[in-house]
């Protein structure tokens, strides 16, 4: 019996997850859009010297949007594998998964607005 944690298995799991992240940003256009937005927000955060709590909110929002995009991509790929042909139920599944990403993206924009709009207004 192995110890409480199987280190080689855990390392393989991290490697698989890393490949998933790589594939997400390599093949998914919307993930790349979120990545560009993330870079802009990080630059703005550094420029405006946002507080640690504001950084935490930004990091949580970024992680939520990227996670939602990953789940959405996984659902879409699985749905395409199940049926390459048009199916109304699969369309609903894919549209609903995309809606989840959109809801989180809107949330991220609102959080970003609350954090950055006052700073931008003070700057000008």
From TrEMBL:
<feature type="binding site">
    <location>
        <position position="16"/>
    </location>
    <ligand>
        <name>ATP</name>
    </ligand>
</feature>
<dbReference type="GO" id="GO:0008654">
    <property type="term" value="P:phospholipid biosynthetic process"/>
</dbReference>
<dbReference type="GO" id="GO:0005886">
    <property type="term" value="C:plasma membrane"/>
</dbReference>
<keyword id="KW-0444">Lipid biosynthesis</keyword>
<dbReference type="Pfam" id="PF01219">
    <property type="entry name" value="DAGK_prokar"/>
</dbReference>
<keyword id="KW-0594">Phospholipid biosynthesis</keyword>
<feature type="binding site">
    <location>
        <position position="28"/>
    </location>
    <ligand>
        <name>ATP</name>
    </ligand>
</feature>
<feature type="binding site">
    <location>
        <position position="69"/>
    </location>
    <ligand>
        <name>substrate</name>
    </ligand>
</feature>
<dbReference type="InterPro" id="IPR000829">
    <property type="entry name" value="DAGK"/>
</dbReference>
<keyword id="KW-1133">Transmembrane helix</keyword>
<dbReference type="GO" id="GO:0016301">
    <property type="term" value="F:kinase activity"/>
</dbReference>
<keyword id="KW-0812">Transmembrane</keyword>
<dbReference type="GO" id="GO:0046872">
    <property type="term" value="F:metal ion binding"/>
</dbReference>
<protein>
    <submittedName>
        <fullName>Diacylglycerol kinase family protein</fullName>
    </submittedName>
</protein>
<feature type="binding site">
    <location>
        <position position="76"/>
    </location>
    <ligand>
        <name>ATP</name>
    </ligand>
</feature>
<keyword id="KW-0547">Nucleotide-binding</keyword>
<keyword id="KW-0460">Magnesium</keyword>
<keyword id="KW-0808">Transferase</keyword>
<comment type="similarity">
    <text>Belongs to the bacterial diacylglycerol kinase family.</text>
</comment>
<feature type="transmembrane region" description="Helical">
    <location>
        <begin position="56"/>
        <end position="75"/>
    </location>
</feature>
<feature type="binding site">
    <location>
        <begin position="94"/>
        <end position="95"/>
    </location>
    <ligand>
        <name>ATP</name>
    </ligand>
</feature>
<feature type="binding site">
    <location>
        <position position="28"/>
    </location>
    <ligand>
        <name>a divalent metal cation</name>
    </ligand>
</feature>
<keyword id="KW-0479">Metal-binding</keyword>
<feature type="transmembrane region" description="Helical">
    <location>
        <begin position="33"/>
        <end position="50"/>
    </location>
</feature>
<dbReference type="GO" id="GO:0005524">
    <property type="term" value="F:ATP binding"/>
</dbReference>
<keyword id="KW-1003">Cell membrane</keyword>
<keyword id="KW-0418">Kinase</keyword>
<keyword id="KW-0067">ATP-binding</keyword>
<keyword id="KW-1208">Phospholipid metabolism</keyword>
<dbReference type="InterPro" id="IPR036945">
    <property type="entry name" value="DAGK_sf"/>
</dbReference>
<feature type="binding site">
    <location>
        <position position="76"/>
    </location>
    <ligand>
        <name>a divalent metal cation</name>
    </ligand>
</feature>
<keyword id="KW-0443">Lipid metabolism</keyword>
<keyword id="KW-0472">Membrane</keyword>
<feature type="transmembrane region" description="Helical">
    <location>
        <begin position="96"/>
        <end position="117"/>
    </location>
</feature>
<feature type="active site" description="Proton acceptor">
    <location>
        <position position="69"/>
    </location>
</feature>
<dbReference type="InterPro" id="IPR033717">
    <property type="entry name" value="UDPK"/>
</dbReference>
